[in-house]
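Lecture 7 notes: from sequence to structure.

We start with a single chain of 173 residues. Read the sequence below before looking at the structure.
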Amino acid sequence: MNIELVSSVLFVGILGLTFLLVGLLCWAIWAVFIRMTFYRIIGSHVLVPLPPNIAIEALMKRMVEEGYQAKISKSYVTTFRSRQPDHGLCGLLVLVGLIPGLLYYMLASVGTLSSIAAVESVPTGETLVSIYGVDFKAYKIAWEWGRDTREAHKKAALQDSKGLSLAPLEVPR
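Now the structure, written as tokens:
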């Protein structure tokens, strides 16, 4: 009877560990392949109080500061960087087994990620910056740049309305 109890507990433990490993493997497959298609549909618009040519140059400078390579045109900037694996996920897969971790690292390091930001002047005097592409990090950086630019111009307008002397306004990095 005692041997049967030990063998049934061992069986349940092995079964639970197997389900955990299969779940981690399914999550890794989702993270590598399915999540990349989600990033392709990301896009947004940000209004910035700058002329289009200054907005596109300022955004390009910000992306280059963040380590991106950029190609600029008259009305848009294309940014790209080498694809990098998620180190947390890679660590989990190495714990599961060395081969799944190495496979993930090799597959996730292949290729480049790119995004495009296009500018368009709107009747209010502001510039509409449309951000879209595959690279979620570039999307986030560009969106934060747009938010920071608006905030800097709001502060400058508030100081100007109070009659305070203004220093030359710079676009946030």
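The radius of gyration is 24 Å. Keep this in mind for problem set 3.
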